[in-house]
Design a protein that fits this description.
Layout: E1 3-14, E2 17-28, E3 32-36, H1 43-50, E4 58-63, E5 66-67, E6 77-80, H2 92-102, H3 108-117, H4 131-145, E7 149-153, H5 161-177, E8 181-186, H6 189-193, E9 198-203, E10 206-212, H7 213-219, E11 220-225, H8 227-234, E12 238-245, E13 248-254, H9 259-267, E14 271-274, H10 277-287
Parallel strand pairs: 3-8, 3-9, 6-7, 7-8
Antiparallel strand pairs: 1-2, 1-4, 4-5, 9-10, 11-13, 11-14, 12-13
Bound molecules: adenosine-5'-triphosphate (ATP).
Adenosine-5'-triphosphate binds at residues 14, 19, 37, 39-45, 82, 187.
Length: 292
């Protein structure tokens, strides 16, 4: 599969602070990615660089084989921002009409269908919409653009559970018919775990881990046992976090465990459970470890 977006050594500083630091990222064509990180991790800053709003201090960004130049807005990207910049006095339909001009693959019949799916009145003014409804206008633009790269920054902010599920379902169904590259940036990990194929986990401006969701699921384990046993078992393995639990210790471990490993754990009186993605993420961020 070929690369459609590549960030090499990208750094963005404000004053003395590197908000994004030597960041490497490679997105393939026709894949759904999650960009995960807690508040302030640098996700929006990274997305603003990828979409041409701000320019890195160092490094380069390549989109569909061309280096992004300062001041350039990449044509192949549809960026659905966390905070929309829609004019409050404009009607929903006028915002869609404006967006359609910028995206050559725009599909009007799909856009009209989505207005119904999400119960949005196209004649309502933006300022009359709730926070969730405003998110939906952005999401309709992201979906209808059918852009080769669609980036959503916190796309379900303000949406109720029903609308969140509806959005993810439409996204996946449409992706199946019209494959493209989608990047979903969020801190709501468990919600997107069913949708994304690959994740980038970001913290303090750097990527801590990049892998397939399935691989992360298979490799993250929660061990429970006595401290000495856990320490013995952990030797030579990647423990990303450890905490006291009653008289024993809980340890989050990242790596493949073969049958022999599981037997060794059993012999040491250690129990092993899978680790939900959200919990794995919390441990990883707390530990601040980079996983190669
Ligand atoms: N223009 C700016 N000037 C100074 N600092 C900034 C600027 N923009 C962002 N930052 C800082 O950079 C850090 C990363 O912010 P960013 O918005 O990229 O994080 P984020 O991962 O998107 O967080 P959230 O999920 O809360 O939106 C924060 O500490 C923020 O205060």
């Amino acid at each position: 599969m070929s690369t459609i977006l590549a960030c090499s050594n990208v750094t963005k500083s404000y004053g003395k602070n590197d908000v994004v630091h030597n960041l490497e990222m490679k997105l393939n064509e026709n894949t759904i990615y999650g960009l995960l990180g807690r508040n302030g991790a640098g996700k929006t800053t990274l997305l603003n660089m990828i979409t041409g709003g701000i320019f890195p201090n160092y490094g380069q960004i390549e989109i569909a084989g061309s280096l992004l130049k300062k001041g350039e807005t990449p044509q192949d990207i549809c960026y659905v921002r966390e905070k929309n910049l829609f004019f409050g006095g404009a009607k929903v339909m006028e915002i869609l009409q404006l967006a359609s001009v910028f995206h050559k693959n725009w599909d009007w019949s799909f856009a009209n269908k989505l207005l119904k799916t999400f119960n949005l009145n196209p004649n309502k003014k933006i300022r009359q919409l709730s926070r969730g409804m405003e998110s939906l206008v952005g999401n309709i633009i992201g979906l209808s653009s059918r852009a080769p790269i669609t980036i959503y920054d916190e796309p379900v902010l303000g949406l109720d559970v029903l609308m969140r599920e509806r959005f993810y379902r439409v996204l996946v169904e449409d992706y199946a018919e019209h494959p493209r590259t989608i990047l979903l940036s969020t801190h709501l990990i468990d919600e997107i775990a069913m949708v994304v194929e690959q994740v980038y986990i970001m913290d303090s401006g750097s990527i801590l881990l990049q892998d397939e969701v399935e691989t992360i699921r298979n490799r993250s384990h929660l061990l429970m046992g006595e401290k000495d046993s856990i320490d013995r078992f952990a030797t030579g393995r990647q423990v990303i976090a450890k905490e006291a639990y009653g008289k024993g210790v809980l340890a989050a471990l990242y790596g493949t465990l073969e049958e022999a490993d599981k037997q060794q754990a059993h012999n040491l009186g250690i129990s092993i459970e899978g680790l939900p993605l959200q919990k794995f993420f919390s441990y990883l961020i707390e530990g601040g470890q980079r996983i190669e």
